[in-house]
UniProtKB/TrEMBL annotation:
<dbReference type="InterPro" id="IPR002937">
    <property type="entry name" value="Amino_oxidase"/>
</dbReference>
<dbReference type="InterPro" id="IPR017830">
    <property type="entry name" value="SQase_HpnE"/>
</dbReference>
<feature type="domain" description="Amine oxidase">
    <location>
        <begin position="13"/>
        <end position="440"/>
    </location>
</feature>
<keyword id="KW-0560">Oxidoreductase</keyword>
<feature type="binding site">
    <location>
        <position position="237"/>
    </location>
    <ligand>
        <name>FAD</name>
    </ligand>
</feature>
<dbReference type="InterPro" id="IPR050464">
    <property type="entry name" value="Zeta_carotene_desat/Oxidored"/>
</dbReference>
<dbReference type="InterPro" id="IPR036188">
    <property type="entry name" value="FAD/NAD-bd_sf"/>
</dbReference>
<dbReference type="GO" id="GO:0016491">
    <property type="term" value="F:oxidoreductase activity"/>
</dbReference>
<dbReference type="InterPro" id="IPR001613">
    <property type="entry name" value="Flavin_amine_oxidase"/>
</dbReference>
<dbReference type="Pfam" id="PF01593">
    <property type="entry name" value="Amino_oxidase"/>
</dbReference>
<protein>
    <submittedName>
        <fullName>Squalene-associated FAD-dependent desaturase</fullName>
    </submittedName>
</protein>
C-alpha cells in the first residue's frame, strides 16, 4: 500500500503537524476541523481594524520541532528570535531589572544572568543557582518526582517567597500555566533543564511578528493543499469506528450533512476531554485518564492607546496582576497609537470576572509598569478568554498522559496533553503530531511507509 488513507481529526498545531508529516510521507490525507478556521489554540481573528491573536505565544531556541514546523511552512522569517535572552522585568512598584543570559557555556551562563538580576538579594541569587543545578539532577520521567509540587520543592531547597515570585514563577507560570504551589515538579524541572541548563542559548526568546493565523493556519492550509490533502473546516467528528478489516471509519457531520470517511490510519488531535467520546471501546487502557487532566485558563487584556507608550517589544511583570506585556501594534495592523496585549496565565481567579472589573484592575496596573500609559488615552480595551488553554499541569499528571499509540494499530493520539516529555507548549504540540503520524503510518493496515522521512 503505497498511499494509505490517513484521517486527522483536529486542526490545531498537533493536527496540522500530523497531517503534514503524513502527507510528506506520501499518504492521502484528510483533515477534519470542528471550528471554521485552522490553528486551534493559536489563531487570530478580526476585531474592527485590528487582527487580534487569541493569546500571546512565545517560543525558545530549544523548541527545535516547532521551529522546524515554521521552516516547513516557510514562515520562519515572520518571527524574531533573540540573539541572547534579554527580558526586561518590572515590579508593581516600578522597580526595573533585566534578566539577560551571559556568554559563558552552560550552566555558567545562568550564574552570570542571575548576578545582574537586581530584583533578588545576593543570598537569593546564590541559592537560586544551587536550586537550578539541583533541578538539573532530577529525573523528569520519575512518577515520584511528578507527584511533588514545585512550590513544595522550592521551599525545601531554600528559596524565599521573593525568589519564588520574582524568579521561579516568572519562568514557570508562563510555561506551565500554573503557580509554583500548583505545578508538577517534574514539569518545572523539564522547563529548567531544557530551557536554562542544556545549552547556553536554549532560552533565547522568540515571538511572531505577524498574526498567528498567518503564521500557522493559513500557511499550513497552503502546504496541505500542495500535498493534495482534503482539508475540511466546520466538520464535527462524532466517532471513530473499526471497519472490521483493520481499518477505520470516521463519522462526522457538518451543515451540509453527515459523512463517513474511510481510513487506514487515524490521528486524533483533539482536546483531552474529547478523546474518550470519539475512540472505540478498548482503545486506551485507561480511557478516563485524559479527561482527568482537567484544564487551566489564560486571560488576555488588550489595550489600544492613542499614542506610543513604550519602545519595548515585550516586558515581564512581577508583584503585579499583569504578568507579560507584548507590543502587537504592527502585527495587528494598527496605523497609529500603540496596541499592547497583557497575558495572564494561571487565571482561575480572572476567567469568570466581568470585563469591566478586569479592565478596572489591569489598566491602572499598567501605570507602574509602563509610565507612558499614565498620560495616554485608552481608545479601545477588551478581554479574550481561553478557559481551557492547557491541561492542568499539576502533580500526578504524568500517569494521565498517554503516548501516541493506542491499543488499536493505526489509531494514534496527538496533542500537547499527550506524553511528549514537554509541558503543554507549542513545542509539545508539534512533537506530538510528528510522533502520532509516524505511529499511525507504521501501524496502518497493512504496514506502510516505514522509514518515512522525518
Amino acid at each position: 500500500m503505497s498511499h494509505p488513507r490517513v484521517v486527522v481529526v483536529g486542526g490545531g498545531l498537533a493536527g496540522l503537524t500530523a497531517a503534514l508529516e503524513a502527507g510528506d510521507a506520501g499518504a492521502q490525507v484528510t483533515l477534519l476541523e470542528r471550528s471554521p478556521r485552522l490553528g486551534g489554540a493559536t489563531h487570530s481573528f478580526r476585531r474592527g481594524a485590528l487582527e487580534v491573536d487569541n493569546g500571546q505565544h512565545v517560543f525558545l531556541r530549544c523548541c527545535t520541532a516547532y521551529r522546524g514546523l515554521l521552516r516547513r511552512l516557510g514562515v520562519e522569517s515572520d518571527t524574531v528570535l533573540q540573539d541572547r535572552l534579554d527580558v526586561p522585568v518590572v515590579t508593581g512598584s516600578g522597580q526595573t531589572a533585566r534578566l539577560r543570559r551571559g556568554a559563558l557555556p552552560a550552566p555558567l551562563h545562568l550564574a552570570r544572568a542571575l548576578a545582574g538580576y537586581r530584583l533578588l538579594s545576593p543570598r537569593d541569587r546564590s541559592h537560586a543557582v544551587r536550586a537550578a543545578l539541583a533541578l538539573g539532577r532530577l529525573r523528569t520521567d520519575d512518577p515520584d518526582v511528578d507527584a511533588v509540587s514545585f512550590g513544595t520543592w522550592l521551599a525545601a531547597h531554600g528559596q524565599s517567597p521573593a525568589a519564588v515570585e520574582r524568579l521561579w514563577e516568572l519562568v514557570t507560570v508562563a510555561t506551565l500555566n500554573a503557580r509554583a504551589a500548583d505545578a508538577s515538579l517534574a514539569l518545572a524541572a523539564t522547563v529548567v533543564q531544557r530551557g536554562l541548563l542544556a545549552e547556553r542559548g536554549a532560552a533565547d526568546l522568540g515571538y511572531a511578528t505577524v498574526p498567528l493565523s498567518r503564521l500557522h493556519g493559513e500557511p499550513a492550509a497552503r502546504a496541505l493543499a500542495a500535498l493534495g490533502a482534503d482539508v475540511r473546516c466546520g466538520v464535527k467528528v462524532s466517532a471513530v469506528r473499526p471497519d472490521g478489516d483493520g481499518g477505520f471509519t470516521v463519522l462526522a457531520g457538518s451543515r451540509t450533512g453527515d459523512a463517513a470517511f474511510p481510513a487506514d490510519a487515524v490521528v486524533l488531535a483533539v482536546p483531552s476531554d474529547a478523546v474518550a467520546g470519539l475512540m472505540p471501546a478498548g482503545a486506551l487502557a485507561a480511557p478516563a485518564a485524559p479527561a482527568a487532566l482537567g484544564s487551566a485558563p489564560i486571560v488576555n487584556v488588550h489595550v489600544v492607546y492613542d499614542r506610543p507608550v513604550t519602545t519595548s517589544p515585550f516586558l515581564a511583570a512581577v508583584e503585579s496582576p499583569v504578568q507579560w506585556v507584548f507590543d502587537r501594534t504592527a502585527a495587528a495592523g494598527l496605523d497609529s497609537g500603540q496596541y499592547l496585549a497583557l497575558s495572564v496565565s494561571a487565571a482561575d481567579a480572572d476567567i469568570g470576572r466581568p470585563t469591566a472589573d478586569l479592565l478596572a484592575q489591569y489598566l491602572p496596573a499598567m501605570h507602574a509598569l509602563v509610565p507612558g500609559t499614565r498620560t495616554a488615552e485608552v481608545t479601545e480595551a477588551f478581554v479574550t478568554r481561553e478557559p481551557a488553554a492547557t491541561f492542568r499541569q499539576a502533580p500526578g499528571t504524568l500517569q494521565l498522559r498517554p503516548g501516541p499509540r493506542t491499543r488499536l494499530p493505526g489509531l494514534a493520539l496527538a496533542g500537547a496533553w499527550t506524553r511528549t516529555d514537554w509541558p503543554a507548549t507549542m513545542e509539545g504540540a508539534v512533537r506530538s503530531g510528528r510522533a502520532a503520524a509516524r505511529a499511525a503510518l507504521q501501524d496502518a493496515r497493512p504496514p506502510a511507509l516505514l522509514g518515512a522521512p522525518g
